[in-house]
């Protein structure tokens, strides 16, 4: 009933709940569906909606193979890789990576948006992040309106430099 991380939990102050047994009517055709196969999603690193750092990529990456830099940067930062719906719809990354209204709501300490314009539907899923870093070549991109740190530049130049700097540290 409430989307995870959509607001901070506060003490309710209520008493112990009373358990009431309710007769449920026969819903009809339950158990009609048969499970034929199960697919377990492979994942390394933290879960997107639990990670302290999220690095997300958008259409500004230009092509699917460039998402590898997002994964690389995420790995170096021990972050979870995320995505805008544009690149999920384009089939570059699975739906489980999507941040936003119809994806996951995240509230990490640091959210890094790479080549993401900042559509309302994306921002509702990440605007609660403590620190937002945006990298976009368009200084008018809406994502800068909520960014704590904005880098006006090409993701293909900025992200590799970040990766290089982090590799030099480790
Ligand atoms: C009902 C509904 C639900 C939706 N739900 C979601 C949702 O859950 N999540 C979501 O993300 N979207 C959602 N959307 C889609 C949303 O409206 C946007 O279309 C989408 O977020 C855009 O993704 P994007 O920012 O990657 O792409 P774009 O809007 O195309 O932005 C790409 C950005 O990359 C920048 N760029 C381009 N090249 C470079 C470069 N070389 N270096 C740096 N920057 C560059 C551009 O300046 C631009 O700002 C939803 C839409 C609808 C209608």
Describe the model.
This protein has 170 residues and is an alpha/beta fold. It has a domain at 53-169: TPP-binding domain (Rossmann fold, 3-Layer(aba) Sandwich), CATH 3.40.50.1220. 20% of the residues lie in helices and 14% in strands. It has four helices and five strands. The protein has helices at residues 67-76, 85-89, 120-123, 155-169; strands at residues 53-57, 80-83, 110-114, 131-136, 149-152. A five-stranded parallel beta sheet has the order 2-1-3-4-5. Helix 1 runs parallel beside helix 4. The model has no long low-confidence stretch (mean pLDDT 93). Bound molecules: flavin-adenine dinucleotide.
Short description:
With 170 residues, this protein is of the alpha/beta class.
Question: What tags apply to this protein structure?
Answer:
single chain, 14% strand, 4 helices, five-stranded parallel beta sheet, Rossmann fold, 170 residues, alpha/beta, binds flavin-adenine dinucleotide
